[in-house]
Amino acid sequence: WQVWAIYMVFAANLSKQQALKQTCPSCDAAQLCNCSFMGLDFIPPGLTAKITMLNLAHNRIKRIQSQDLQQAVNLRTLLLQSNKISSIDEDSFQSLVKLEFLDLSNNSLAHLSPVWFGHLFSLQHLHLQGNFYRDLGESSPFSSLRNLSSLHLGNSHFSVIRQGNFEGIELLNKLWIDGRNLSEYEQGSLKLIKKINHMIINLHNSNVFSEIVRDLLHSVTWLEVREIKLAVETKSMVQNSTSTFRIQKLTFKDSFFTDQSVSQIIVLLKPITSLQEIEAIDCVLEGKGEWDTKKIERSGHSFVKSISVINIIIQNFHLFFDPSGMESQIKNLERLTIASSKVFMVPCTLAKHFSSLLYLDFNDNLLVNNRLDETICEDAWPSLQTLNLSQNSLKSLKDTAKYISRLLKLNNLDISQNNFGEIPDVCEWPKPLKYLNLSSTQIPKVTTCIPPTLEVLDVSANNLQDFGLQLPFLKELYLTKNQLKTLPGAAPIPNLVVMSVRKNKLNSFSKEEYICDSPLAVRGAQVGAVHLSLMECHRSLIVSLICILVFLVILILVVVGYKYHAVWYLRMTWAWLQAKRKPKRAPPKDICYDAFVSYSENDSDWVENIMVQELEQACPPFRLCLHKRDFVPGKWIVDNIIDSIEKSHKTLFVLSEHFVRSEWCKYELDFSHFRLFDENNDAAILVLLEPIQSKAIPKRFCKLRKIMNTKTYLEWPSGEDQQQIFWENLKGALKS
């Protein structure tokens, strides 16, 4: 009965595995099991301990039952997002103690149960956003998740966060809350988390925003707020606390501002001394820049070092006021990015007060040359080292260089993707300039306008046909996507380390000016003085050609061997080697038959019904060996043939047209050829059942053809009166 029980268990497991293979073919014999987008309305049966990743996303699963994942004890990743899950049995995840990633987002869960996650001690990433729950319950669903690193939660129905909801979580790398309809936040709820590296929250309610910020000032490093419409807030965000601030970066994305809310948020953020960076991405500003600069100035100086404004929409940007009065707020700023925001100028009076600014990015704006004179006036941006003016509307390279030369400390300049078209022979540049990007500027050539102090130059994607500048300090040169036909001479750029020349029309270079880097044997030598062999220059090509030639030689040998019976000659050589180690004839005691009969199956009627009857019923009878009757069953056919020939006194060949074409007869001739067809050996008896020309015998049987030409053979007569003489002659040959 034990054997029967084992058999039943094995059969049940096999049945489950087959069911799994049918439901989700990719799970067969794989640790990674991808069953997404398969229209499943249940978790497939037969999941085993070998599976470490199970992807069931984008199906129609409605319920997770206790037994569904019970055997998947080594599961590390479980993806169940975008299903219709509304019910989860409390012990469904109980066996998944090794699970590290669980995604239940975009389902129909109306509540979250702490019991679900009670045994997920290894869980690091949990995604719960996009469901139907309105809150996280009265206590924390995450109290057992001590190793949790990232948590995504919330949805369009999520409206309440209570104290205790995050109990048990002390450290998160990322927290994402979809709280666009969050209306109630109990103060202190997020304070339970001691440290959050990056928090993203989608939020519409500005009151809730202020309360959350107050709780996060001492725990979060980077706070990203999305979709908020900031109202005018009067209550300070900083509470009386001895704890140090942790927040360093604040990002607003897809948010809405007014002039009043901008003024107020600047004032409220100033006391946060740890705040170093502010970003506004894809936001809308409704206003003209009428900020309360007096109130802003009275609130003290700002600690922010970096401001980034990317793709901000100001519907009436042409009416935007000169932000005078903000001078005192920008003197400590070190990095400023205003990209894709239709900036066409910065007033000179304001630009002069960016006394500490090191990095300025005006990428993808509306700057033109005549406004650039105002933006970069004398004494403006006095500390600037890096300037990005790419993708603007600058037309004159000479004027652009002239204005930029006022930046006395500039060493890094990007003016790419401006349509200059022409390049003058002489330009003014800042003396410290080391990096210059002129890619995609439609310049047809390079001239001495380019400063000789450069260490990095990018002139990619232009119309250059040659490059011959003297740039003694240049280390990196980018010439991609031009019309170059020859490499630049090496002498004018002696310190070059990197050169990119992809997508040109190169066909030559100066061998006298370039130095070899590889192979190691010629490193440091001039290219013109080195003469490498074809193998050294084209190693991969030569190896490929050798492989092709070897393949062709093998193919030719196979074809020739097949045509000229090379396999037969190899077999004969092996048979000859075996025959050399055996005596010419077997000892008399080992002789079992008077003759071994070799014949074609098509001649079996004559052999078996006429010849055998005549010889085996003679007085005395002859003992004949026939393959049909006397071969040992199960023994290799070749061994049967060799043994039968060696144990027979004679070998009787019944020759006919069928014999010549027979594979059986060919084998029997093969393995008797060396042993039987000696010039002085009479062990072979040839019987011609029908007239046959010696030339009909395959040429490889050369000794057989020779014997037929030089020795007597018996020919079966057609007349009955001569058949008796045939039998007498055959019997006499067998007795000799």
From TrEMBL:
Disulfide bonds: 27-33, 348-377, 427-449
Main location: membrane
Transmembrane helix keyword on record: yes
BP term (GO), one: inflammatory response
Pfam family, one: TIR
Domain TIR: residue ranges: 591-734
Bilayer disposition of the protein: Single-pass type I membrane protein
Compartmental location: Membrane
GO cellular component: plasma membrane; receptor complex
Key words of the record: Disulfide bond, Glycoprotein, Immunity, Inflammatory response, Innate immunity, Leucine-rich repeat, Membrane, Receptor, Repeat, Signal, Transmembrane, Transmembrane helix
Annotated protein name in UniProt: TLR21 protein
Provenance organism: Pitta sordida (Hooded pitta)
Lineage: Eukaryota, Metazoa, Chordata, Craniata, Vertebrata
Annotated gene: Tlr21
